[in-house]
Amino acid sequence: MPAFTYQKCSDLSQAMKWLAEDKDTFLLAGGTDLLVGIRGGKFKARQVADIKDIEELKILKEDQKGITIGAGVTLNEIAQFEPVQKNVPILAEGCNSIGTYSVRNRATLVGNICNASPAADTAAPLYCLGAIVKIAGPGGERQVGIEDFFTGPGQSALKAGELVTAILIPKPYPQGKGVYKKASRTRSVDLATVGVAVQRWGQEVRIALGAVAPTPVRASSVEKAINEENVTDAAQAASLVEKDISPISDLRGSREYRYHISKVLVRRGLEETEEVCS
């Protein structure tokens, strides 16, 4: 492990100060991506700032705006939070698909999106839920829609000195069932070869995919066929997903396999959610 300086942040302003002063400062919440990245040489950290004990980043609540999830809240805490299980269980499915139970006791939702991997398991459910990313930095606070947060592989909308403080799942919540389908090399503890979220909103549907483009993407062609053109055949609608994705070949799967399994998982998601809604 390369050497770095470890600092514990007492409050949010201190974390932002250290980020602004040194571009080689990295934030530690769960550390499940960060420490692996430092060890492997992906991240060149001169300083690691521990934000785990900042109280305002531990917020997990539901109010009139929706569900707010702080940057320090773990995946297991989210998946076990009753308002998530009741109102947006698709997010709990995405959280539970990551790693092992012990990893999920450390890993955070905010860390999963800030890593900005196209294969982030929580991204597709968040796309379907219209999540809002809350950001703080030298210029004050701002909010970004989740689809604008991912800008490229490993790249996000965060500017120098900024950090994500929370994610908001806004009301109204979806009326209908949502599912997250994941294809990977092993049943668990593996990155997604393809990840598909399908969320029903009454008679309409939202669909998002991960690991099939430089960022997570919405399956707009499939959504249009179902929501606007009244296509009812799941296989026919799912076949259109190839218009929305641009997968590559890598160690987890070939480009051709990703095209194929994307159609399979979208079809399965449509069929599973339609059975409940019909």
Characterise the protein shown here.
33% of the residues lie in helices and 25% in strands. The protein has twelve helices and 14 strands. The protein has helices at 12-21, 34-40, 75-79, 82-87, 89-96, 101-104, 109-114, 123-129, 146-149, 220-227, 234-238, 255-277; strands spanning 5-8, 25-28, 47-50, 60-63, 66-70, 132-137, 140-145, 150-152, 155-156, 163-170, 178-183, 194-201, 204-210, 217-218. A five-stranded antiparallel sheet has the order 4-5-10-6-7. Strands 11-12-13-14 form a four-stranded antiparallel sheet, with helices on both faces. A three-stranded parallel sheet has the order 1-3-2, with helices on one face. It is globular and about 55 Å long. It starts with a strand and ends with a helix. The mean pLDDT is 93.
- Name the shape in a single word: globular
Major sheet: arrangement of strands: 4-5-10-6-7
Distance between the termini: 54 Å
Structural class: alpha+beta
The largest β sheet comes out as: 5 strands, antiparallel
Number of strands: 14
Give Rg in angstroms: 19 Å
Beta strand %: 15-25%
Broad CATH class of the largest domain:
Alpha Beta
Order of helices and strands: EHEHEEEHHHHHHEEHEEEEEEEHHH
Q: Overall pLDDT, averaged?
A: 93
Fold-level CATH name of the largest domain: Uridine Diphospho-n-acetylenolpyruvylglucosamine Reductase, domain 3
Helix content: 25-40%
Helix count, DSSP H or I runs of 4 or more residues = 12
Question: Low-confidence segments, ≥5 residues, pLDDT <50?
Answer: none
Give the domain tally: 3
The CATH architecture name of the largest domain reads: 2-Layer Sandwich
